[in-house]
Amino acid sequence: MNVKCEQCFLKTYTSLLNKFNVPLKAKKIFLSYYKQIIIENNDLSNPEIQKILTDKFNTLLEITDPFAEEKKYCNQLALLLYNEWKPKIINSNNHFDLALRLALAGNIMDYSANDKFDIHQTINNVLSAKFAINDSELLKNKINTAKTVLYIGDNAGEIVFDKLFIEIMNHDNVYYGIKSAPILNDVTIDDAIETHINLVAKVISNGCNYPSTILKRCSKEFMEIYESADLIISKGQGNFEGLMHENDSRIFYLMMVKCDVIAERLKVPKQSFVVFNQTET
User: Do 26 and 93 fall into the same domain?
Assistant: First the structure.
């Protein structure tokens, strides 16, 4: 594991330990376990290691969703922004571009990466940003010709901006992938119901709750949709980490680059926005 990834993991769990006022003894137990897992699992991917750590944290605190409050807050905030921006998109000269940019802005809503974020400032930034990688025209063309689209969701709150983008895509056969159970602040069926994304897409669980899309862990039902889709839209860094080795021309990655490791891999600046098809860049 990259030492920067290890530091990021530690930051996340230290923040959670403090959030729940975990007693010192329990903190030491978890941090000892954390070090053991990091040392013994160099053969696993970052999302696989993070699931192990999250399961241990949840067991220690006897909880199932440590980000429940944050997810609720993000969904409600995003729904307010949805009402504000939907008319603006309809009245814009380029519906697709504006909806795509807002979908990218939504990717900032990630408590596993940042304790605090400013969605309003991020929207302002993305409206005038030059994408570090920009395959948006190719994406638009693929949407127009695809018979089936699989849109793989990322975070709570962000799901609302995905919904808005899917509406503007105006495709009649879109599947929206969610996690089977809570993991970090990733989207689950509760978020799908709360945001009514089921009105614009067919919601499907991937059958597992890794903070990514790990194909070997996904359900048969999900894999049938994945394998038959003509176009796959993957949101966020977590899903990128799980799919980046697939070398699949159907996959388009939409995300804000939030860390040095991903920035170095893609050869783009940190905090930049990317829309790219991995076989085209």
Answer: no
